[in-house]
Amino acid sequence: xxxxxxxxPEGFLWGGATAANQLEGGYKEGGKGLSTADxxxxxxxxxxxxxxxxxEQEANYPSHEAIDFYHHYKEDIxxxxxxxxxxxxxxxxxxxxxxxxxxxxxxxxxxxxYDNVFAELKKHNIEPLVTISHYEAPFNLAQQxxxxxxxxxxxxxxxxxxVIFNRYKDVVKYWxxxxxxxxxxxxxxxxxxxxxxxxGNAEFGNTAGDDEGLRYQALHHQFLASAKAVKxxxxxxxxxxxxxxxxxMCSYPLTCNPEDILLAQQKDNLSNYLCSDVQVRGAYPGFAxxxxxxxxxxxVMEDGDEEILREGCVDFYTFSYYSSxxxxxxxxxxxxxxxxxxxxxxxxxxxxxxxxxxxxxxxRWSLNNIYNRYQIPLMVxxxxxxxxDTVEEDGSINDxxxxxxxxxxxxxxxxAIADGVDLVGYTPWGCIDLVxxxxxxxxKRYGFIYVDKDNEGKGTLSRSRKKSFSWYQGVIExxxxxxx
Length: 484
Ligand code: BG6
Prior knowledge:
37% of the residues lie in helices and 13% in strands. The protein has helices at residues 20-23, 69-83, 94-97, 108-123, 139-145, 152-168, 189-192, 212-236, 258-281, 286-295, 305-311, 360-374, 400-418, 467-477, and strands at 13-17, 87-91, 127-131, 174-176, 241-247, 250-253, 316-320, 324-327, 335-338, 341-344, 378-382, 423-426, 449-451, 463-465. The strands form four sheets. An eight-stranded parallel beta barrel has the order 1-2-3-4-5-7-11-12, surrounded by five helices. It has a two-stranded parallel ribbon with strand order 6-8. β11 (378-382), α13 (400-418) and β12 form a beta-alpha-beta unit. The longest helix has 25 residues, at 212-236. It binds 6-O-phosphono-beta-D-glucopyranose. 6-O-phosphono-beta-D-glucopyranose binds next to loops.
């Protein structure tokens, strides 16, 4: 058999990923307004996070301080540079720039903060990859407008984009319009992504009171906002590369029963492809229209909406990939996971302490599926292992489990490239320990860099290098050749 060359392309974008609400802190500093993330309490794997419209004195709100990147960004970027990052995925806190979301003028101090961050990245030749909206929005938009269910929010978002595109047009080239936009196809995404005010018992994962039709209406508004942003961005700077971002849910049929096969395909269609078909191809797919009809969902669309979607197709496709699950037509199969990742147990896979099944081959499978469908450049912008780390007496942190996880996934990305997939970048999630989105914990760590802070918010916030730090440095230095 002929030898296959398996290699990452020259100029491959190695780096790491974060989001403002899980990283920055400084929730009231520099004129920042309250965001939707700022009203969500901490939880655990077994205790749900709560959404509290009025801040409670006794409650712990992890976004308020997070890991205080707001004051540590120079030190953190220095560490990213030491690892050899080519790219850093970060998001902007919308409420830092428009404290209420509907303000007439942006907050100069907020804009200045990101000027400083981008300048620091430039100093180290690190390319920013900016998510415009990552699980947060000014809380005022939830309270006054019921978030994305209201079409007016499209205009506020486009205005926000106009401001940031103009301000950062010479320092940012890569943009993502919405983080994991497809989370809005699930009840879980209603507040976190859709900014829709919950009624009654406002707990994460509580599906009571969920309004599916309203969620899809909100999603339609996000599609319009995304498409308008793509068009506007290209007008402001034709060199901009603007992408979509999907939480790719890799779901296998549990058996070869045709019922399971069909169910897995339907899940793939609705959970993954509905959103990216709109954002990459510019129109709702047939299976979405059928689903809406069957569920009695009637989207309110205005004349010209279809044209807006058609004219705002993204330049590249990005996604998060952590784990895979199974689907079955048999309702008695064992469930696994929780928070952001849920499905049926796969007997062939091990799972993390948070019950996320570990499946590197699923990443190759997903990369091939996505590329076969769209044939545009792909980036894996989130991947990683949330785990408890132990600091040894000598201060070292030997996170071999994390290295194993990442090594396995990088090896499969290489296979996918050899399969012909145009993969252009990789930014593992939480390259520095940060707050978990699903549980609000600090204990669920993903980083190469350890941050001294615990679930209760105590700690010095000092940064230290884990064993995976030098391992990843070696991976980047060798462009993915050295994985041991
Ligand atoms: C992704 C989100 O779904 O998963 C991140 O985009 C999140 O914001 C990440 O942090 C990992 O999930 P968790 O719940 O472990 O933080």
